[in-house]
Each structure stands twice: as C-alpha cells, then as structure tokens.
C-alpha cells in the first residue's frame, strides 16, 4: 500500500495553498464560475491534470516496455462537470494524445500501449466517469 500526503491552508477569500513535503506549493482557489478569483489552479483543473499526467506516466511505461520508439508525446485534456440530482459531478474526461513515432510500423503497438495506459491508470480507474482517448499517431 502507498500513501500520498498533502495539506492545505486557507489564505484569503476562496483561496488556499496546497502543500506536499519536498515539492513546490500550489496556490489553489474556487473556480471563477463559482465565485473564485481568476488565475489560480482549481480542484477541477487539478483533477483533470492528474488524470492526464497519470495516463502519460502509464503510457511512458508501456511504450518503453514495448520498445516503441517515439520522438514526442503531447496531450490535451478536457473534463466536463454537470449538475446531477446528487450535486455536481464529472461526467467525462476526454484526452487527445499525439504521439510522434520513430517508426510508423509500430503504430498498432503504440495504440495498444496507449489504450493499456488508460486502462491501468489508477486515477482514471478510480473515477465514476468515463475517460476517453483520441489517439493521433504521427
């Protein structure tokens, strides 16, 4: 079992400082659409980015394990939140992944590695909403 520890301290209005030992602090706030200030990371941003970075980390593992050569990995993620009878929920996260391959003959293996990365990402596997990938291989 692994544990990950953070702490947060309220600083003003709808803002706080998120901390994790040995790492840079992150200034966080309520999203502007809910009365928070502009220019701060929000819980919604952090969730979206966490899933995106988890899938990247998993992808790097599977690409390396499969000896799939690539020049670049880039992604963009969009999460969607909506009102439900039980409150606000995320109803999906969509990732667009662009992978520049060294050898186009490895396209099928690369696509499989990226799909396996999403299936095994502990963050996307823990969510109650779908995580969908759009894969572009160059």
Q: If you had to describe this structure to a student in words, what would you say it looks like?
A:
The protein has helices spanning 43-65, 107-120, 122-126, and strands spanning 7-12, 15-19, 26-29, 70-84, 87-101, 131-137. By secondary structure, the protein is an alpha+beta fold. It has two domains: 1-41; 43-137, K homology (KH) domain (GMP Synthetase, Chain A, domain 3, 2-Layer Sandwich). A three-stranded antiparallel β-sheet has the order 1-2-3, with no helix packed on it. It has a three-stranded mixed β-sheet with strand order 4-5-6, with helices on one face. Helix 1 (43-65) crosses helix 2 (107-120).
Provide a compact summary of the structure:
The protein is an alpha+beta fold and 138 residues long. Helices cover 30% and strands 38% of the residues. It folds into 2 domains: 1-41; 43-137, 2-Layer Sandwich (GMP Synthetase, Chain A, domain 3).
Layout of helices and strands, plus pairs?
Layout: E1 7-12, E2 15-19, E3 26-29, H1 43-65, E4 70-84, E5 87-101, H2 107-120, H3 122-126, E6 131-137
Helix pairs in contact: 1-2
């Amino acid at each position: 079992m692994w544990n990950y520890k953070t702490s947060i301290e309220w600083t003003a209005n709808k803002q706080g400082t998120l901390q994790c030992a040995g790492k840079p602090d992150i200034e966080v706030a309520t999203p502007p659409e809910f009365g928070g200030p502009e220019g701060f990371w929000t819980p919604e941003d952090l969730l979206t980015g966490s899933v995106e970075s988890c899938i990247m980390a998993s992808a790097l593992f599977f690409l390396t394990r499969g000896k799939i050569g690539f020049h670049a990995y880039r992604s963009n993620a969009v999460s969607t939140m909506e009102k439900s009878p039980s409150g606000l929920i995320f109803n999906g996260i969509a990732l667009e992944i662009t992978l520049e391959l060294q050898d186009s003959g490895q396209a099928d293996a690369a696509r499989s590695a990226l799909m396996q990365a999403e299936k095994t990402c502990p963050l996307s596997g823990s969510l109650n909403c779908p995580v969908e990938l759009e894969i572009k291989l160059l």
